[in-house]
Structures are given as structure tokens and as C-alpha cells.
């Protein structure tokens, strides 16, 4: 009688047999990953610029110079924080520069009533601009670039009308102290920018509103189906962006000791968008990188200062800025395609 051959079943693995595990990516593989550049590239770039200046630029690595650079970048950081929230919802705000000018135009008109009323009115002007932008985007359904372009033009025109097209000197000592004062040796504007960065980071990471911002930016339709207040979130984000831009206008006016709506905030929208994009926040929304935004603003400021120190024209800095934007957008696109 023929017996069927029995195939032995595989037994349990020997206790000493190595368990297969995912190997961590090698350093070379990480350098090939676009996600690594988007998350850490801006910090490496800041370190490289600092190292270059430490070796090749005289008197760059000094306390006075760092103080100057931080004071100059503080308004950009404040505006960029609001821009990061807007871009996190897959939007953009081109009116931030005009909002700065509008806030600066309100200050001289109400300083006669005291510093606090003047500050409140200027900040309210920024909130109104943001509310109009948010309503046009969320209620009317306009594309953010179109909605904010209207106030990009109209806001500065209104500011010039309010100021009669003239530069007005600021003599209020309390307001001027915001731009020139310091605490523990650190300029007040730097303290304000740092505290706001911490507040925005807490908002994004620890609050329901912050999570709603990310959800709306990731997929607006899905967020609406999930019952999230999409319109309210969008309006709130644009209002915050407008208030932060108005605050930056107040601080810039205090530092310059004059209200000049014709030039204050010019091209600020481009500087803010650059800081946000270079900092790793994707233009298609769904993520907000606050620390990266601060580092992106600092990188642009250090790069501009480096070129000036080496007697290169400002146009060269603009070309370098454009190249960095293109590289950042390319890295973000490559990451999405993988």
C-alpha cells in the first residue's frame, strides 16, 4: 500500500533566529529625501550662512549686529506668523503690506486721545481688513489671491487718503518706546515677535482652533462634511493675519518715528510668503510650521545682510531670494509626488 508523502509544516522560528526589522534610513538616503529638506533645510541654511559670515565677514558675529538683524526681522516674523496660518488653510493674503500702512495711517489721527485708543483703533483696522478678506473667501467664494488683491490696492490707497499722502512724524514717547525700548538688553520688538511666535505655535498645536486650521487646509470639503465650522475658521484666520499685520505696522512706525503709508509695508507680502514657504509650510495647506517660518524669515534677513556686507546690490539679494523660493517650492512638490 502506497503511503502519501507528508510535507512537514514549517515549525516555529528558532528563538535565536533574528527577527526582521525595518532598517533606519542611512544618512545618504535621508539627504535624498525631499521631506528632510522641507523639514530641516531652513535650519541647515541658517547655520551655513552664519558659518560663512563667521569666516569671511568682518564684524558680523557681534552682539550689536545680531541686535540690528533681529530688530529688522521682527516685523517680518510677525506678519509671516499670520501668513503661515492663512497658507495653512490653502490661502494667501496679499494685503498685509497695505494693512501695515493702514494701521500706520490711523496712529497719528488718534494719538491725541492717548496711546491705548490709538493702538486699539489701528489693530481694529487690521481686524476689519482681515474680516473683509475672510468674508470674500469663505462667504462669496472668491479665490484668496483675488480677494486679497483688492485690498492690496485699495488698502494702501485708503491709507494715503487718510494721511493726505504725507509723512507724519510721531512724537509720542510711549509709542516710540515700543520701537526703541528694550528689556533685559533685548529690544521690545524682538520680545514681542518671540512671544507671538510661541503663542501661534501653541494655537496650532494645542488648541481646537489650530487643529481645525490644519483640517480645513488639508481637505476643505471633508472638513465641512465632518461638521467643522469651515467659514468661521477661514474668517478667524484672516482676522488674525490682519491684526498681526497691523501690529507689525505699529511697531515699524514706532521704530521709524514716523507714519509713512506710501512706503511702509511695501513688498512685505512677498517677504512673509517667502519666510513661510522656505520654512516648510506647503502652499497647498494642511500644515503650519511656526518655528520653520521664524527660521525662514531669519534666513532671508541674514542673507540680505550678508550680501550688503560684501557690497553687493540689493537686486542680488532679490535674485537669491527668488532662487530660494523656487527651490523650496520644488522640494515641496517632490515630496507630494512621492
Largest sheet geometry: 2 strands, antiparallel
Main sheet strand line-up? 1-4
Could you list the spans in which at least 5 consecutive residues all have pLDDT below 50? 1-9, 12-17
Strand content: under 5%
N/C terminus separation: 61 Å
Q: Please count the beta strands (DSSP E, at least 2 residues each).
A: 4
Structural class, by secondary structure, is: mainly alpha
Mean pLDDT: 86
Tally of helical segments? 14
Radius of gyration: 25 Å
Order of helices and strands: HHHHHHEHEEHHHHEHHH
What does this structure look like?
The chain has helices spanning 27-31, 34-56, 63-88, 96-110, 115-140, 144-162, 173-180, 188-206, 208-218, 220-225, 230-256, 268-278, 290-309, 314-337, and strands spanning 168-169, 182-183, 186-187, 258-259. With 338 residues, it is mainly alpha-helical. Helix 3 (63-88) crosses helix 13 and helix 4 (96-110) runs antiparallel to helix 5. The longest helix has 27 residues, at 230-256. The N and C termini lie far apart (61 Å). Residues 1-9 and 12-17 have low confidence and may be disordered.
Amino acid at each position: 500500500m502506497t503511503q502519501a508523502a507528508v510535507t512537514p509544516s514549517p515549525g516555529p522560528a528558532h528563538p535565536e533566529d533574528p527577527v526582521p526589522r525595518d532598517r533606519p534610513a542611512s544618512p545618504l538616503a535621508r539627504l535624498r529625501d525631499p521631506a528632510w529638506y522641507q523639514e530641516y533645510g531652513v535650519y541647515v541654511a541658517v547655520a551655513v550662512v552664519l558659518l560663512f559670515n563667521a569666516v569671511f565677514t568682518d564684524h558680523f558675529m557681534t552682539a550689536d549686529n545680531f541686535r540690528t538683524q533681529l530688530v529688522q526681522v521682527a516685523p517680518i516674523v510677525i506678519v509671516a506668523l499670520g501668513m503661515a496660518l492663512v497658507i495653512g488653510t490653502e490661502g494667501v493674503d496679499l494685503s498685509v503690506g497695505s494693512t501695515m500702512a493702514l494701521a500706520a495711517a490711523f496712529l497719528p489721527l488718534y494719538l491725541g486721545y492717548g496711546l491705548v485708543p490709538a493702538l486699539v483703533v489701528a489693530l481694529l483696522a487690521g481686524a476689519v481688513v482681515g474680516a473683509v478678506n475672510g468674508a470674500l473667501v469663505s462667504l462669496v467664494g472668491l479665490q484668496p489671491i483675488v480677494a486679497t488683491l483688492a485690498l492690496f490696492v485699495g488698502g494702501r490707497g485708503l491709507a494715503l487718503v487718510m494721511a493726505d499722502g504725507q509723512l507724519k512724524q510721531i512724537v509720542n514717547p510711549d509709542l516710540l518706546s515700543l520701537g526703541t525700548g528694550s528689556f533685559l538688553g533685548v529690544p521690545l520688538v524682538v520680545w514681542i515677535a518671540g512671544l507671538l511666535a510661541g503663542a501661534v505655535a501653541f494655537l496650532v498645536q494645542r488648541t481646537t482652533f489650530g487643529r481645525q486650521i490644519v483640517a480645513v487646509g488639508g481637505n476643505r470639503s471633508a472638513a465641512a462634511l465632518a461638521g467643522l465650522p469651515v467659514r468661521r475658521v477661514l474668517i478667524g484666520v484672516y482676522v488674525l493675519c490682519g491684526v498681526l499685520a497691523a501690529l507689525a505696522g505699529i511697531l515699524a512706525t514706532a521704530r521709524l518715528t514716523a507714519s509713512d503709508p506710501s512706503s511702509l509695508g511695501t513688498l512685505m507680502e512677498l517677504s512673509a510668503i517667502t519666510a513661510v514657504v522656505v520654512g516648510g509650510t506647503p502652499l497647498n495647506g494642511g500644515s503650519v510650521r511656526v518655528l520653520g517660518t521664524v527660521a525662514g524669515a531669519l534666513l532671508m534677513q541674514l542673507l540680505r545682510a550678508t550680501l550688503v556686507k560684501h557690497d553687493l546690490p540689493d537686486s542680488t539679494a532679490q535674485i537669491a531670494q527668488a532662487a530660494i523660493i523656487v527651490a523650496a517650492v520644488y522640494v515641496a512638490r517632490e515630496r507630494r509626488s512621492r
